[in-house]
Amino acid sequence: MAELHDLTALEQAAGVRTGELSPVEITEHYLARAGELDATLGAFLTRTPDIARKQAADAEAAASAARREGRELPPLHGVPVPVKDLNQVAGVRCTMGSRTLAGNVAQIDDHVVTKLRRAGTILLGKTNTPEFGLPCYTENLLAPPARTPWDLERSAGGSSGGAAAAVAGGLAPVAQGSDGGGSIRIPASLCGLYGIKPSRGLISSGPLLHDVTGVGTSGPLARTVADAAALLDAMAGPMPGDPYAAPALPPGETYTAYAGRDPGRLRVGWLVDVPFPGSEVHPDCRAAVMETAALLTDLGHEVDALTLPADDSSRLAFTRVWSVIAAGRPVPPRDEADLMPLTRYLRARGAQIPAVEYARALYAFRMLGQLIADQVMPRDGGFDVVLTPTVAKPPPRVGELRDDADPQAEFAAVGAFTPYTPLYNATGQPAVSIPLHWNAAGLPIGVMLGGRYGEDATLVALSAQLEEARPWAGRKPDVW
Questions:
Q1: b/e per residue, 440-454, with b = 16+ CB within 10 A?
Q2: Which of 51, 285, 336, 388 is most buried (CB neighbours < 10 A)?
Q3: How far apart are CA 234 and CA 342, in angstroms?
Q4: Is 64 a catalytic residue?
Q5: What's this model's pTM, rounded to 2 decimal places?
Q6: pLDDT digits (tens, 9 = 90+) for 260-302
Q7: Which listed residue (155, 160, 183, 463) is catalytic?
Q8: Does the active-site annotation cover 476?
Q9: Is 84 noted as a catalytic residue in this protein?
Q10: Which helix (DSSP H) or strand (DSSP E) does residue 122 occupy?
Q11: Tens digit of pLDDT for each residue in 90-104?
């Protein structure tokens, strides 16, 4: 017999609209799941049951009134959506995964939270993240590590590891995450989920923590493409003060609609070998790309190998920018000793980067985006989509990437594990991780599709086509 967490987010929302399901009932179900499994999965840093129950009661009343009056409700009205603890929710603790902010309470909502409130979603809590979202695993000094439900010895990835653990473990139907170097796509790969890093500017990062580098953005994590598209619809759109905005869909269009639309015949370039030193691609990740390339060919797409010249400059530029981002986090000098070793290492490194080098690194991002637009993905004769592994290896064991004794070596290991994802943060292009493959050990192996800037809808339509050809949502981990 199906339980509430077996339903997709859109199925839950449909039940709320008809009155067959209650937001209160759905919320209580997930609060109970979190109470039972959170200590095992490490999904939340802060749970907010009182807020969730109040919002659920309000959503219930609004749904009843809408039915009486014949009014439409937002597509995800009454559906629980946890928020990553890098984002601010007024009146709720916001630690950013750092012991130095353990008692910090946000004063205002981030714009993405404002959008989620308008959508009628329910806040279950703030999901686990590594300190300031810097590494690609979710281990901090505040909470248990986030673990993939597919093997509790292994990491859920990061920095949206808690969000991914919550969705993959059935503690939430969908979740908001954020991605500055792969932080949605990496945990999606490790947890067997679908995750979208949208085009730069599609979702606002304001009003307080605007990402001046342009590398970071919020985005959805979900079990299905349609659920992710619906959450993207809820979060997308410009807000006052945004410095830039991605191209909007035509009036009346939604990303949810594209999840049910034929993408047409696309030209797909696949790439496995990393064009800079230090990374080795695991055979499971290589096999996942080749099988996906074959599936895309069977679906009628034109699929060809893509080669890029060996060039380490983009990786070095990203390292400089990432270090400056770490250095810019507002930590009082007296609290520096309470930071984790990797954070201290990156902050010290960032503080030593001259302004001219930082500016050159940002220029390198723009040049890389122009190169891809002109030579790899031009609209006349170029690739429409690029296929790669999401990460270079299967899910690592908890603690495997962390090295408190040598944070420089740790940062190198993190980079070797995630050589593909930062490209799209540097260029601002959209990219998705798709859970098409599980290896012989039963671990999920994601593949990544990257698209042209502003063409998020193409990736959604292609992802849905792949999902229809090889469905994955029916696969459930033992904790389910």
A1: eeebbbbbbbbbbbb
A2: 388
A3: 34
A4: no
A5: 0.98
A6: 999 999 999 999 998 777 779 999 999 999 999 999 999 999 9
A7: 183
A8: no
A9: yes
A10: none
A11: 999 999 999 999 999
